[in-house]
């Protein structure tokens, strides 16, 4: 399974990628795009829970991400934390984040009030299965950029965060390589609907 460096390298590839979604429900459509940046990796990997490594992991989160890539923060320094078992699964599954976004699984409009046990404030929830285990990815809007980012990410332990949430239909998804402008249409139900009407 993945270590912190493997997952950081996999996440680094996402920095040059943007996903565009169109969702539908009851004749309504929602369009949004998702971006990735270095700052988010810290929280997605759960590094904030390693309180006994606060000195090592203190400072600018973008810089910390690059220190992991440069092997200046080593796997042993992370995995030897007393709290590492709490985040081990996150780190191992984070390697699959791109394949999660490439898939066309269920998207929910997320209402945090449905789960009183959860402190996660999010707008959308992706639910995927990776290695026979449910994985939850929470998306929130960056009001400044008017795009969405991954607020939280983790494999299911006990609670199913999709229960009670509103399921939206994926109508369209596109993957854009920002450096080359290459576009890959991952899913296009709108085209299928148009073809049926012709």
Instruction: State the helix count.
Output: 7
**Model regions low in confidence, pLDDT < 50 over at least 5 residues:** none
- What structural category do the secondary elements indicate? alpha+beta
Rg over CA atoms, rounded to whole Å, is 18 Å
First and last CA, distance? 49 Å
Beta strand %: 25-35%
Rounded mean pLDDT is 92
Shape: globular
Helix fraction, binned, reads 25-40%
Q: Quaternary state, please?
A: single chain
Order of helices and strands: HEEHHHHHEEEEEEH
Largest sheet: 8 strands, antiparallel
Walk me through what this model shows:
The chain has about 200 residues and is an alpha+beta fold. About 30% of the residues lie in helices and about 35% in strands. The protein is built from 7 helices and 8 strands; from the N terminus they run H-E-E-H-H-H-H-H-E-E-E-E-E-E-H. The protein has helices spanning about 5-15, 40-45, 60-70, 75-80, 85-95, 95-100, 190-195; strands spanning about 15-25, 30-35, 105-110, 125-130, 135-140, 145-155, 165-175, 180-190. Strands 1, 2, 3, 4, 5, 6, 7 and 8 form an 8-stranded antiparallel beta sheet that branches. Strand 7 (about 165-175) and strand 8 form a beta hairpin.
